[in-house]
Amino acid sequence: MVIIDLKEECDYLLGEIEKKCRKAAMTRAQIERLRLERRGASFPISTVSDSTLVETEEDEERDAFEDEIDYYLSDYRTLEAPITKEAIQEVLPKKSNYRYQDIMFRLQAESIREIKEIEEILMENKDISTVELKEYRQLLDLEKNKIRILRECLSEKEDVSSQDEKKNQLILVPTPSFNIRIIDDLEHIPSEYYPNFYELIQSIVDGTFKGVKRFKNNRYLLGISEVKAFKIRVVFTRLDSNTYALITAFMKKCDNDKLYQESLQSKVSEYRKIEDQLRNSLSNEDFISENNRYIEEMFSLLRGEREDKKGIIL
Asked: Fewer CB within 10 Å: C terminus or N terminus of the chain?
């Protein structure tokens, strides 16, 4: 039986998360100051103070962390009883993710919050039916078992090699005219951005998901995510436990760009029309073989190994 002191656990887990966010923000602020000093820049004390610089970096760090948490939390919340370690591990980040421990703490905190809310409901509703009482107790057991398994994962010997050997499979989504969407997109992007796109796509392959964010304020993009770096995005979604469909890649110049939103919605809409077909093709050897050839073509383009932009591989 798992005995949990809710207040103590919440205070500890959330405190650890805040502490690490502050430390990371201060470190980045210090790096930025040193970088600018090397360029001969100076900060007037009256206009830019250390506290202002740290606060900005801390806000950015917190937003990025919340985006990443939301990505994992969406799948974590859908887990159902009977819960297994394997089921939880499928929705967790890889141990090579530098935020692994913070994410694990935060997922535990979310389960503790669920437990607290359920216990408050039970305390406030004395006339609850037997059926409802049983359902609430099952939910309590589910969240407690999630916490137990998360702690087991955290306490395991830190050997990331065996886990990280399992690479994710990519599926490149075609256009209605049977071209590969992401290759078409990349061919219209300046090649100086290719190394960064390569890094983003590799982060999907190795499961670290750099700068991951799930779309949640647009009903047309529900279930769709992106990995991101400065000015660039790769949009993807999950097909099964370790297979991800790459929908599009683009440069993002403005958060409020209506044309960008409409273009993205159109591409996602086209993907949804063939989503089931793609899932059903995952066991088709011919389909996977052809898909792998397109993947090599995409990486050849990003590595600068393409002779031209007509798909000819050296």
From this structure: N
